Amino acid sequence: MKKSLLMILSCTTFTLVNAQIQFEKTYPKQFSQDINDVRECSAGGYIAVGFTQDSTGTYGVQIIRTDVNGDTTWTKTISGGYGQNAFNIQEIDSGNFIITGYKNYTSSSDCDVNLIKLSSTGAVIWQNPFGGASCQWGQAIIRDNQGNYVIGGSEFYKRNSQGGAIWNRGWQTFQIFGLQQTADGGYILEGFNSSLLSLRKTDSAGVATWTKSYSGVNYNPSCRTVQQTTDGGYILVGANPTFTCIKLVKTDMNGDTLWTKQIGNWNYSYGGAVQQTTDGGYIITGEAYDGTMDAAYLVKTDAAGDTMWTRTFQRPNTWCWGESVQQTSDGGYIIGASARDMSSSEDDFYLIKTDPAGYESVQSTIAENISVTVYPNPFHDEATLYISSPGNLHDATLLITDVLGNIVRTQSITGNETRIGKEELSPGLYFYEVVSANEILANGKIMIR
Predict the structure, then answer these.
(1) Count of CB atoms within 10 A of residue 130's CB?
(2) In this structure, what are the phi and psi dihedrals at residue 33, rounded to the nearest 5 degrees?
(3) Strand, coil or helix: what is 318?
(4) Are 287 and 314 in contact (CB under 8 A)?
(5) In terms of Cα–Cα distance, which of 199, 191, 127, 131 is closest to 165?
(6) Cα Dmax for the chain
(7) CA dist., res. 64 & res. 35, Å (int)
């Protein structure tokens, strides 16, 4: 029993009956590393980018390429100078990748925008830092409809396919951390303008046509996912002024607010990324802290911004937060997060692949006509274990263990719904198994707040 539970703790991959794959994995290094962005790759699997630190504390760009199960295919570290960091990655031609961030030379205030083209196998094709007299950086990058690279950060830059300059636009009071090319060939920029979360619309030459600011919405500089929605408007995410809930803002095509939604009620919370989903709703990731545990937060809303479900993901003895989210080709979600060890304060890349309902590991491992879900999860007082086909179970038992593998509860399963009460259990992370005829039919984790 303990062996199977330890396998769960080390993030064993589970294959769904509908051929979806889910996982939850960290990628430890000798020293700290943080994830900033993750993307699904056209050839399958995922690529994550961020930074790592060496033994001297110097930063370097860190890239991890995985297969569909989240297992590492290759890693690449790019270092040099006083330090380097990467914030955003996009797949381009032939499975290659383009990355932006910054490169420091002699100090943290001596920096240029870093532009790196990487092959599908992780080889650096070229690296082209550029800047000016002041410190400059890149926060978000896209490849436009002409094959050029458009970068937002300390300024607004357009570079050709080899990284050479086409133009740059600078506004003293507007710094960019998200961008997208719009249907009219121009660009929508998300950033902060005089300390307010703002959108700026430009034409194809980068000339601003309007700017709108949104009071009462605090910005998160890690967010790089402003998006033009299918109705021609825009969606952006941040936090309320006290950072206790997510704020989701929907605008029309002119940037005027159509609605604003507050999501959650935590000691600390914010939205770090948002994307419109294929059903017209939205998927959000960020952070949720309840005073005890800090978790990567996943929220699904409908098209009106009303919450459909929320999920939290947390590793034992860590602080966790979500930085990037993307709906995947199978309808699920890939989340790029970071997990900080509470003892060492060192961070790890943390990737979470879920099904369309936001679950990362709760499925049958044997019978095709049995599936298991726990809802709500996390919970405060009680949750319900739902089993899709109770007729296939014979004298089934629910076993709950703590993170050390100790069985803390055993209870019988007699139908398709089984109550899981908090009772004597302390807040924290637990694992469960549904067992019948000495076989494990399903397993997963629950979190009690």
Answers:
(1) 18
(2) -150, 145
(3) strand
(4) no
(5) 131
(6) 73
(7) 10
CA distance 306 to 125: 44
Residues in a beta bridge with 261: 248
Q: What is the CA radius of gyration of the chain?
A: 23
Sign of the Cα pseudo-torsion (51, 151, 300, 246, in order): positive
Residue 245 near residue 238 (C-beta atoms within 8 A): no
pTM exceeds 0.85: no
> Using an 8 Å Cβ cutoff, are 258 and 238 in contact?
no
Give the 3-state DSSP-derived string for 390-445, with helices as H, strands as E and coil as C: HHHCCCEEEEEECCCCCEEEEEEECCCEEEEECCCCCCEEEEEEEEECCEEEEEEE
180: nearest Cα among 197, 208, 163, 200: 200
Nearest CA among 121, 181, 123 for reference residue 151: 181
165 burial (CB, 10 Å; 0-12 / 13-18 / 19+) is: exposed
Which tens digits make up the pLDDT trace of 169-183? Answer: 998 889 999 999 999
- Cα of first residue to Cα of last residue in the chain, in angstroms, is 25
| Distance between CA atoms of residues 273 and 210, nearest Å | 23
User: Is residue 314 within 8 Å of residue 295, measured between CB atoms?
Assistant: yes
Best CA proximity match to 359, nearest among 381, 382, 391, 386: 386
Three-point CA angle 224, 229, 231, nearest 5°: 160
Tens-place pLDDT, residues 90-99: 999 889 999 9
Q: What is the DSSP letter of 94?
A: G
